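Example 3.2
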Amino acid sequence: MTQLIDRTTRGVYIIAATPFAEDGALDLDSLDRLVDFYAETGVTGLTILGMMGEADKLTPEERRAVIDRVMSRAGALPVVVGVSDAGIGNLTDLGRHAMDRGAAGLMVAPSRGPAREDRVEGYFHAVAAALGADVPLVFQDFPLTTGVPVSPALIRRLSNDLPQMVMLKHEDWPGLTKITALRAQESAASVPRLSILCGNGGLYLPQELARGADGAMTGFAYPEALVQTVALHHAGRTDAAEDLFDAYLPILRHEQQPGWGLALRKHILMRRGAIASAATRAPGPRLTTTDVAELERLMARTERRLAERG
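Structure, written as tokens:
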């Protein structure tokens, strides 16, 4: 399977949900259907065991089971695996398992702790040394969740010092100026390019693309919206990209509610036939009948707007 090695990766790497049965058990049959669903929407690749994939609620054995099942189903579709962990030993064990199964690369977020850049820098050097120079790394920059803000200067320094750090998953918020700063640094011939894919549900995707991002690495229950927006932008049709994106914006925004977004996303995926149950693993939100009626009204409005667009 293709690895992320050349720092030019672009497109959409969808953050995959992790399906559960109503009793909380891992639903591997739905995971097969979900991989097929994502592939049919035209995504460039998958990212599994991310924060919205409920990785922190899985046992070590379940994480490996998810990796094995996705890798056996994905075929030639590249798969990035989230391996963030409080312990570097645990991170390395899971990362090596993923790479042995054919992963394209590993996504790692800064460990929680004091927001000191020397600590973050030391941590990523230790992670890179433990995994080895042959393992492509994706730096997940998500300070709203980790509590660890990271400057463009540190990201660039790590990218320069660690050749295997080939991609930034950009989820700072607000963070458009960070993309601009990183791209400006690359005007110097001595500075290697860094692939940048953006998160936050794609909420700012048109603006991020305009700032120089290469695409998206995020979750949304309508992956085709992200795929088509990125493709239109890359084709130079920026207004068409924004017009298409605008058709999905109300439901995309609704899905971004903190704490409830995953439950909403899973309900849409269930209604679209991608998974059997919308269950999140405890402790997780459950939608009320009012929540469901509201969401399904938004789904119907989205479908009408798309039909009107032809």
